[in-house]
Amino acid sequence: MDAKNYVEKVLEDVKKRNAGETEFHNAVDEVLHSLIPVLEKRPELIEASILERMTEPERLVSFRVPWMDDTGKIRVNRGYRVQFNGAIGPYKGGLRFHPSVNQSIIKFLGFEQTFKNSLTGLPMGGGKGGADFDPKGKSDAEIMRFCQSFMLELYRHIGPDVDVPAGDIGVGGREIGYMYGMYKKVVNSASQGVLTGKGLTYGGSLGRTQATGYGLLYFTNEMLKDKGTTLKGKTVVISGSGNVAIYSIEKAQQLGGKVVTCSDSGGYIYDAEGIDLKVVKQLKEVEARRIKDYLQFRPNAKYVEGSTKIWEVKCDVALPCATQNELDNAAAQLLVKNGVKFVAEGANMPCTLDAVKTFQDAGVYFGPAKAANAAGVACSGLEMTQNALRYGWTFEEVDEKVQQIMKNIFAAAKKAAAEVGEDDNLLVGANIAGFLKVADAMMKQGSF
Question: Is 366 in the same domain as 239?
Fold first, then answer.
């Protein structure tokens, strides 16, 4: 069977075996088609059914999470953990607490995580997890009880040399702390390497909070350098106002970019003078308020309801940092019309497949999430190393390592794309570079 027919057959089988899981289908579709040139050169991968093995999770668990709210009522949510591929190291990937979480999203994230982790150059396999629990509007006590109940099941499936979860949407330092506390009690072990994103007083790493946002800009900066320019003086549109967005804004401003937007699920802020990051941090990190309250501090700014309308703002660089599928084809066409030259994904697959095609067809330099936002998991890998050494690096040491990892990822993606005649197609390059490391490890370890 030739490579193209092989890919189409695997994709058809994936859709049949995972009916209705659209997010997972899209993730697999995007990766598999970009691998055709590699499979043509290496038919032994087809003979070994490498794609069938790589698109089927090694393990997927779903479990009940009962917890008591502040009125004494028992609530029930559903938790998940997918251990997608452990060929190059322990499973590694975040936990997401959000009402949208379902099996399809967890599998799509775990599949993507496999290649992202491979790109970092660190020995980490791909995993992901979470629950359809919404932390918004919950008290600290309710969140603690949920996290403790969640860990009472999750602990059976994780460990420093097995599976190392971290945070994601809805899971920050507070939630990691509650889960780690319960893990220690249940297993009677202070194995700090079992979770990353921990507090600095109990095994966390300096730089982890900033890593994903900073890393996105390190990668974006490499894209601009590759085209003979810099971020200085460029107008930048960034969506979101969570951890990734905040530290993307911070690093973009440090590199000389003018960031004019941020958003939350209600709408977006446009500040022609440049986003005042101190205000955003106060609203989001301290007071947990809505982004529209930015106008109380910066009355000359503009608030527009509807978060996806943010892409109507003219810019040189667009960095979607909110959530998956936030930037569709219509938004991509509008950005292209308004002159965008660079797009890099801070969230996990925030651009739909047709939006990505629109960017590529228009000659927009596009940085895919698995490469552009890999600094978060890279820093988590560095946290695991520090835990194993019983040692901690300075912020500067961690940041330097993260910056070098992001430069390496860009170089690997650029090189892999060029080798298959797809110059500047960083999506294809990242997919191929990530895939080959995992595929070679699987081949050398046998058919299981």
Answer: yes
